[in-house]
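Explain this one:

_____
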Amino acid sequence: MSGRPRARNWFKSSLSKASETCVEVCFDGGRVGVRDSKCPGGPELFFEGSQWDTFLRSRVWQR
């Protein structure tokens, strides 16, 4: 193993406008990663798939 982080395929939220910055997500096995699109080299948060599903169902993010 090289010690380098594994490359991930990040993508922007489909709810964001093309010209605005937003969060990006990636799928990594059974986890979902989230990061700030303005700072792609910055911190990344990872959630288990069930946690992400609960978040999406909560609709808190739409308020």
User: Anything to note?
Assistant: The first strand starts at residue 11 and ends at 12. Residues 49-58 form the longest helix (10 residues).
